[in-house]
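WARN no homologs supplied; continuing
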Amino acid sequence: MPHQGTSLEQALSRRGVSRREFLAFCGMMAAALALPKRASAMIEEALATPKRLPVIWLELQDCAGCTEAFLRSSSPTAAEIVLDVLSVDYHETIMAASGRRAEEAKEAAIQAGGYLLVVEGSISPADNGVYCCIGGKSSVALVEEAAANAVAVVAVGNCATFGGLPKASPNPTGAIGVMDLVKDKPVLNIPGCPMNPVNLTATVVHFLTFGALPEMDSLHRPLFAFGHLIHNNCERRGHFDAGEFVRAWGDVGHRAGWCLYQMGCKGPISSHNCPAVRYNDGTNWPIGAGHPCIGCSEPDFWDWPTYEPIVLQEATPPLTYPSTENVVREVTPEGAAITGGTLGLIAGAVGAFAYSTMTGRKESNPEVGEEEVEGHGVEEHEEAEEPEESAGKQE
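OK structure emitted
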């Protein structure tokens, strides 16, 4: 961790990150936030200021998957970049202190105020909160206490945003998301299972640059990351439009990268920037790996049928169905010659008509009368050729 008077740029420079790489990161954050290119200069100025934002990170009913995803990002590591501008005063997984000392550090940070509260995992209010207790306090009490002096709250992962897996039927713990409990502070949701660390990094950068959370949708998700359906930007969208669907796992369409909609893909009803940022430093994402989207950025996705195929309404006869065999396309010299000749005739006819229309050829030649122009029809042309054909037959 850098000292209080050290800027992010200085801290990264000590770790071997050049200024060029730092500026590239600022540009990448501007792009991720869907901001104009000039905004990268504002981000650079904000991150070059020797200030650090205090953070309290709570883990409740969760698997720590979002923390794991955050700590494994790289190039340069999102963890380094964010942690170098943040003062993480409490995080059960990564902090050195434990037990009483850890709780004292959190209490001191809460008393100081002005921090960003990050919550991972769902809240369990059922049966007086006995299903998730830390330091003798229920998850409800922990969130209410930590949110009191926070400047804003960021819920990461589907569990913290919408209840996630613990909320799935029959929901024995009464699991809820952070926004269902915290009503007096701005709450931003970064869903996903796990959340994408790029979106958390961009959110923190936006807060440091503009002093506010990014613009959100009705589910409190940042529009820069959740403003479009996955379906609209999916790399397999062309196959959907062409009616080319995977019909069974491992079939020809599946191996060829066809659309996974029939296999239960939730891309058409899920909003996320997965096709753009992907996972594991842009290596891949579920649909790119041949797996349908399960809708992990949406509320109650765990109660949706995940692997249940969708029966498509077939409005076309079987002859138009996608082929189940590899299509071999061969072009013979004879076929190419016939096709080329036909296209040439069509293009020539169209070009001649277009030229006469645009140039007004009839009007520019006063010597040609109305009747004479109309006489160049198909019927008279055929009659003019008949004597030649007859002569050819006599010979």
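The chain has 19 helices and seven strands.
OK
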